[in-house]
Amino acid sequence: MNILEVEHVGFQADNRQILNDINFTVADQEVVTISGPSGSGKSTLVRIIATLQSRTAGEITYNGKSIDSYDPIEYRREVSYCFQQPTLFGDTVRDNLKFPYDIRNQAFDEQHAQNALQSVDLAANYLDKQITELSGGERQRVALLRNVMFPPRILILDEVTAGLDETNKHIVHQMMQRFNQDDKITMLIITHDQEEMDSAKRLITIENGQLKGDENRE
Ligand SMILES: Nc1ncnc2c1ncn2[C@@H]1O[C@H](COP(=O)(O)OP(=O)(O)OP(=O)(O)O)[C@@H](O)[C@H]1O
């Protein structure tokens, strides 16, 4: 079953065609890597899919229905977008991992949060760590965890490993694998990283606002 269908999607701004006639479908639980030169329109495309930006042409179907027909808050719980610069809020790691519970009016599951931290090589007592004391890699791990405390159906990762050292990159790669295999999350991964492109099961290439390649390597 296709969880996502992108049909003839375009985006025009300031008389410039930034995306033009993009077509592809994504199967449930598939991992799709998206690459292409800087400025080619990759972020614009996934931001449109995440409903953070509107398209100017075409149609997108999520789980059998137009993305326009969903309640925006519900939709963003199911299709979650994570950016290269992790945005953390509040004062502590707890404030961030508790947030998904707060917006759902649910009691914070401290044990679940501690287990989640330990699964990404962060000690359970990191819950009370000030976010100003975290390294870049630790910030990214906490931001990713916040996005999956309640697993979305689709997780969009926009260059989340850019700027991370090898150790942190490796931990984030393991997180991605678990999100897909254990939590059954469909993933769209934007990357410039050669290793991530080489190991991609399916690689979509965007150039100059157009889909130039869609290669299945399985
Ligand atoms: N709302 C907008 N109005 C005007 N121009 C825009 C808008 N959104 C994106 N652009 C332009 O569209 C082009 C594509 O941007 P986008 O961020 O999607 O590229 P990208 O492929 O993700 O690049 P990078 O790999 O550097 O992140 C850029 O030139 C950008 O300035």
UniProtKB/TrEMBL annotation:
Domain ABC transporter, chain residue ranges per copy: 4-218
Record's keyword terms, sorted: ATP-binding, Cell inner membrane, Cell membrane, Membrane, Nucleotide-binding, Phosphate transport, Translocase, Transport
Entry-linked Gene3D superfamilies: P-loop containing nucleotide triphosphate hydrolases (3.40.50.300)
One record GO biological process: phosphate ion transport
GO molecular function, one term: ATP hydrolysis activity
Pfam family, one: ABC_tran
PANTHER family: ABC TRANSPORTER I FAMILY MEMBER 17, IRON EXPORT ATP-BINDING PROTEIN FETA-RELATED
Protein name, as recorded: ABC-type uncharacterized transport system, ATPase component
Organism: Lentilactobacillus senioris DSM 24302 = JCM 17472
